[in-house]
Structure to design on (548 residues):
């Protein structure tokens, strides 16, 4: 019958509308997903995979693992890394390259990770310290090796683990 | 009937202002000053309520979507809408080439004037009522439907096809749902036997019209809420400004203060619909009263009548927000289908049922005069 169908349709519609409203009513009390950023700095979790700033971990003796081979510079697709080196004579009379400056430009980096992947001695990593905004473009040019640092001697056998806490921010002024 | 003590009512304050004016001015000037004061108060309340509503809407919308909403400006973001207002006031009004200048500038005023006129006739509380016509319901229906002229003018004069489609949809929608809203209010006018808001409220002292007229009143209430929603172009009925199809519908070309007018009146129309539903179905500013329970009644009167009014209207507005964030937008043919094939026939039958119930003395006040009688 057409009329019963009409009346039945109204009640079906009302029932499904009420069902929808119950769903949204429950949604009203779900925990909110918004993160209030500057306030939650302490509890903020940034994924380990997040690449934000290139750093060169130094150990407690101010030693790093960079042999100044320049592979990172060659692999960088847009010339963001500049490695300058000089050669010195070691005690046993051999010539050896040492790192002068490892410069990395925050402003032109695309965070492709090629430098980190290709580094033969795992000397550089991306950390996840994402608050890199500065007011002056010149401050975006970071010098990664610390003042007076030197290459870690091979005798130690095991290269420093990459997770070692780096001394941060000191190289900003460089 | 006992006289209850009403400590927070504004009656005494209003009487004092009235006496002061009449004591110091000739009657004509006193009336003029009173009129100006009332006008200023209504405009200020209009703006303040709109600001509060915009904030509440954003907050409630956010909570329905598991967000926090505005939370930067002031504690919990309470002055966010104030900042938005200042921003919109200082924004440039952009002039549209080849628009019909006169109509283009007149349109927002039609919209906002209609909504201020309706707003001014609302009974906000005991003696807080600027206009108490004996045809109050009729007046309110008449002036609130003026706003559609502004919307049609805005769409027509913008010289923009999206605005035009939006305005045409709005016109079709508004004219259709105006019928339903009018008939559902008529149902209650039949029940309470008056069109004057003060009498309608007084008649609901012990039993709200929603319960007094039981089945037909509840059907009328639901229909009024649906059609009120549709008239304010909100919720699932916001296809005149369907942003995914029409950018912003009839107010696409408006900017700055002119856009602000449309925005303001949209929120105020939501308030007006909720306020009329409150007054007509839920007892208006009248506190909950139970016959014979004098202590309880006195306790209820300690809450001032305007708080009751805003509380009840607030509940209905929350309901409107809840509906808005629950249902998807209707298609235009489904929208008109709903009105002409469902709401209107049901409404006409409902009106007839209400007449029969009132004439055969089947309302709650007639059935149980000891409990609910006047």
């Amino acid at each position: 019958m057409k009329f019963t169908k009409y009346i039945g349709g109204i009640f079906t519609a009302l029932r499904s509308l009420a069902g929808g409203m119950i769903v949204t009513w429950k949604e009203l009390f779900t925990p909110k997903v918004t993160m209030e950023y500057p306030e939650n700095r302490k509890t903020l979790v940034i994924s380990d995979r997040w690449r934000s700033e290139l750093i060169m971990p130094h150990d407690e003796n101010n030693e790093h693992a960079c042999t100044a081979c320049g592979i990172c510079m060659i692999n960088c697709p847009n010339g963001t890394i500049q490695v300058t080196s000089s050669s010195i004579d070691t005690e046993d009379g051999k010539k050896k390259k040492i790192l002068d400056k490892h410069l990395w430009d925050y402003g032109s980096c695309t965070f492709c990770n090629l430098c980190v992947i290709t580094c033969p001695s795992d000397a550089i990593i991306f950390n996840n310290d994402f608050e890199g905004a500065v007011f002056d473009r010149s401050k975006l040019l970071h010098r990664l090796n610390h003042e007076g640092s030197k290459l870690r001697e091979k005798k130690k056998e095991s290269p420093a683990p990459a997770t070692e806490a780096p001394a941060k921010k000191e190289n900003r002024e460089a | 009937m006992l006289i209850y003590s009403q400590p927070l009512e504004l009656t005494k304050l209003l009487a004092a202002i009235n006496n002061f004016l009449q004591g110091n001015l000739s009657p004509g000037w006193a009336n003029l000053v009173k009129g100006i004061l009332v006008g200023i108060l209504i405009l200020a309340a209009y703006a303040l309520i709109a600001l509060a509503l915009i904030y509440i809407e954003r907050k409630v919308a956010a909570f329905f979507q598991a967000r926090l909403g505005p939370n930067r400006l002031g504690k919990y973001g309470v002055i966010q809408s104030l900042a938005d207002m200042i921003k919109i006031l200082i924004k440039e009004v952009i002039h549209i080439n080849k628009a019909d200048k006169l109509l283009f500038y007149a349109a927002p005023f039609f919209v906002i004037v209609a909504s201020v006129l309706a707003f001014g006739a609302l009974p906000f509380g005991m003696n807080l009522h600027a206009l108490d016509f004996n045809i109050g319901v009729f007046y309110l229906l008449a002036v609130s439907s003026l706003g559609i002229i502004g919307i049609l003018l805005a769409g027509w004069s913008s010289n923009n096809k999206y605005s035009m489609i939006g305005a045409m949809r709005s016109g079709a929608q508004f004219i259709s749902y105006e019928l339903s809203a009018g008939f559902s209010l008529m149902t209650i006018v039949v029940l309470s036997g008056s069109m004057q808001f003060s009498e309608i409220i007084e008649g609901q002292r012990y039993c709200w019209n929603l319960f007094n007229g039981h089945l037909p009143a509840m059907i009328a209430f639901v229909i009024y809420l649906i059609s009120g929603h549709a008239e304010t172009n909100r919720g699932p009925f916001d296809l005149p400004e369907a942003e995914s199809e029409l950018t912003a519908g009839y107010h696409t070309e408006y900017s700055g203060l002119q856009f602000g007018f449309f925005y303001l009146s949209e929120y105020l129309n939501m308030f007006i619909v909720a306020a009329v539903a409150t007054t007509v179905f839920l007892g208006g500013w009248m506190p909950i009263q139970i016959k014979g329970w004098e202590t309880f009644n006195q306790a209820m009167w300690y809450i001032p009548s305007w708080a009751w009014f805003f509380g009840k209207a607030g509940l209905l507005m929350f309901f409107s927000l809840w509906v808005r964030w629950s249902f998807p937008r209707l298609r235009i043919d489904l929208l008109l289908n709903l009105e002409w094939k469902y709401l209107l026939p049901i409404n006409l039958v409902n009106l007839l049922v209400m007449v029969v119930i009132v004439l055969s003395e089947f309302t709650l006040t007639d059935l149980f005069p000891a409990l609910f009688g006047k």
